[in-house]
Amino acid sequence: MRFSLRSIVGMYLWSISFGAIGQQTPTSKADYHQKKAEHFSQLDSSRLAIIHYQKAYQLVSRIDNNRAADLCVDICSEYYKIGDFKSAISICQKGLYHLRFLSTLSDTTHFKLYSFLGPLHQQQSNTDSSYFYFQQAEQTLERNISIETRLPTYVLYHYNNQGRMLLNFQDYKRSMVYFQKARAMAIKYGRKETIPYVSSSIAECYDLLEDHQQALQYRRETLRLHNQPDLDRAAYLSGLAWTFYKLGRYAASLATSQNTLRLLEKIHPENTTAYFTILLKQYWFMGACFYDQQKYQEADRNVNQALGIYQANFTVKSENLASLYLLKAQIALQKQDYIQALKSLDKVLQVALVKSKTDSLTVSDIKNPKLSVLAAQYKAWAWQRKYQNSHLISDLSEATNAYELAMHLQQLTGKSIEDKQMRLLLSEQKFSLYPEAIRMGYEAHRRNPRHFGITRLFRWFEAFQANHLNDAVRVTMAKKRTLPPHILDEEMRIERQLMAFRGKQSIDTIIYNDLQIRGYRFKQNLLAHYPAYYRSIYQAAHFSLPELQQTLNNQTAYLSYIWQNDCLYTMVITRDKAEVICQPIPKRLAYCLKDLQQQLSYNPGLGRYTGTESAVYCYQYLVETLKKQLVGKQSLVISRDPKFQFLPFEVLETGQKRHDYMLGKFAIAYTYSAQWYWQHPAKSKINNETWLEKLFPNLRKNTLVITPFVAEKQLDSHWKPVSNLKEIKKIGGEALLTTKATKTALLNTDLQKKVIHIATHAFVDSVDSFNSYLQLYPDHDSHLYFDDICHLPLQNTALVVLGACEADKGNIVQGEGVLSLARAFAYAGAQAVVTTSWEANNDAISFLSSGLHLYLQQGYPIDKAIQQVRLDLLNSEEYTQYKHPYYWANYTLLGNHDAIYPNKFIFFKPFKIWIVGIILLIVASTLWIKRQKITLWVLSSRTTTKPIK
């Protein structure tokens, strides 16, 4: 064997270096291997880098725990690059083990390991573990704020990964805050190479928020900033293809996916997890495009191609696999292959849920909320279509069970999301489940009442109505019960700091996002340190039909209307009976409702009321059909479908005589749902007052009047007066008037009152209800926005009276109802709100408000008080010009109708009788005491013996 001179010299030098290494200490040997590993890491040779990092780790693992932990971070990073997540998790756990032996806390290394373990467990679909480690990283950041400046790249990626985790939980708004924070850090610390990565995440979040135009802008920015033809650019092109698909630009989406495939073929990347993920996604996207274009054969071919790639290169079942099977199920449904569709949907549920048995699911059993709900929903539709072909009771039973599962999953998901806009968006996105669910529930009850009884159907009606409101009120009350006062004060301070940003045209986004993150961390700490509060969030609401019937008296009935497709479903519940009536919807009903809305909501001036014909027709359709069930009833509690949410039933006419309004027959209260009405968490607290407080209520202490614009006070010409001193005096109680009725003063006022009366101007945003506000006295910040109202401490408030125009007007959120300012007070905890649905006349509202408070103070129930004061207006000779329903019908009650104060007829009205009674009681007591003394003297005299002489 011959050797060249070069090879001999090389071998000699190698032997010298090897000998030198052999003589080095373990630390210097570790330095050598770490440098070699870093060299290979820069060359993207992760496997060689891992070998040298492992050698360095072995050398220091028993002598330097701090360095061993740092090397674990480096090894984890390399495993992450090649997609070996199990090995990465294992080495991270070793790193945490080493840190246990350090005498001083190493926050930076802890943070690095936690920030890796969060996304690693997320990749493995270990939801609980992922959530835990993300929270550990957040707590480490909160404990040591210097980590951000010392490890900006790690913190930046942590924020991005934290946002991506929240996407899985459908907490999109919170995700966006973290993404924007990561973007701000990339700009602040000059990490330009990371901006495309973060912008891609922001685009994905916008896609999930259904704002695809914004998503498209960020997709294009990402590709503009990253021009290199590598795997990252392929990933960004893949995202662009998805956004084009969501925009319905199928040709552009297909072309972009083809470009991505060509780029993957051109760059010949190492066969990594990232490569195969991008590859299969292109076939998935193309399949989705063909599906939407009704080219089902092409769609099926592309989905099968993607499934083939997945099965050949992945061992762990992930969300991508579930999404592929979901699309395959949709294709099968279009082909009417229900068996194949159901098989595919079961595979989706196997990935999206932890348990195979779905009858006892909890929130921790849900890996992916969105996929699980969609799979259950499509499963219900598959069984429903199968039933429509077979008419078999067994298929109907499977359909109703699948709908039950879908509704249960919907109720579990999103409970930890406090942001109301996000929760309401989720409610609207999930609404498509309910129309067919109600139809199938009614069909099942009609055909098989033993299996699908009225009690079960009642639960479905409740699931249809105001789920988020019910949860929000319950959790708000639970905070008062489970959290200490100093924690509640701190939460309120954070909320008020956030309030200062609302409604402003321009804000410092960085400061605002930092404050929001601070709020999120604070709330996560509450969940971690107060188990009772945590349980209250996920506690299932138990409100059954028998419980409702027990609360009803013989004079009250509950009516719940649901308008779905071409049928109106009406549930009528009385103390002794419950039934559901299904009626086909005639075209004339929609016409009459529209006519009534126009008649009621537009100022008639001196014009005559011409809505009687429509009112009679609506009465005959909505109420006359329930005539048997309403015999002997004096009070109605009504849950209206959003399609006629505007309608005060009091204006409906029987037609038996002129203007025979329902107002004269029933006292009516409206509600968002039966649960919110009868199981309001504040009711027990208010009902638990002492007998002395009930007997002698301090009306001044229990009432607060807020009115910025008073007629007798000097006002800016821009503002019209809403109230007058005479009305305020009649109402009584404490008062915030004119310059004292500012937003700052209101937030610093004790709001622990039974009754709060607010008379002011209201501004309703027809596009975004969260921009609606009540106008307080003009100051530096005079708008009390929707979300500001939601955070007012009104848990002890029995009634809020809103003397403001259109306070019950707002956007309709499917499955939740009208998102009005009145609803904001319901979120804040108020049991009942008296409000207006259209523009109010000051004189008429003043009359109604004054009379309402007078009747309430006499002990009337709220619904009876409103009924009586309206009748007073109609019968008044002084106010004959206000008999048109426009003036009185918009003054309605949302919520609890119980009396606020004791009945004065019993305690206060016959004052002289009380005085006489007390005098007689004193006289009787005196005579009884004297009689007892005489009796004792007689007995003692009889028993006394004479002395012996």
Explain this structure to me?
It is a single chain. This protein has 949 residues and is of the alpha/beta class. The model is unreliable at 690-696, 905-911 and 942-949 (pLDDT under 50). It has six domains: 28-150, Tetratricopeptide repeat domain (Serine Threonine Protein Phosphatase 5, Tetratricopeptide repeat); 232-310, Serine Threonine Protein Phosphatase 5, Tetratricopeptide repeat, CATH 1.25.40; 316-483 and 530-542, Serine Threonine Protein Phosphatase 5, Tetratricopeptide repeat (Alpha Horseshoe); 487-529; 545-670, Nucleotidyltransferase, domain 5, CATH 3.30.420; 688-907, Rossmann fold (3-Layer(aba) Sandwich), CATH 3.40.50. It is globular, with a radius of gyration of 35 Å. 60% of the residues lie in helices and 8% in strands.
Structural class: alpha/beta
CATH topology of the largest domain: Rossmann fold
**How many strands in all?**
16
The rounded distance between the terminal residues' Cα atoms is 158 Å
Name the CATH architecture of the largest domain: 3-Layer(aba) Sandwich
> Structurally, how many domains make up the residues?
6
- State the helicity in percent bands: 55-70%
Strand order of the largest sheet: 7-6-8-12-15-16
Radius of gyration: 35 Å
Shape: globular
| Average residue-wise pLDDT | 85
Low-pLDDT windows of residues: 690-696, 905-911, 942-949
Features:
disordered C terminus, single chain, 949 residues, five-stranded mixed β-sheet, alpha/beta, Serine Threonine Protein Phosphatase 5, Tetratricopeptide repeat, six-stranded mixed β-sheet
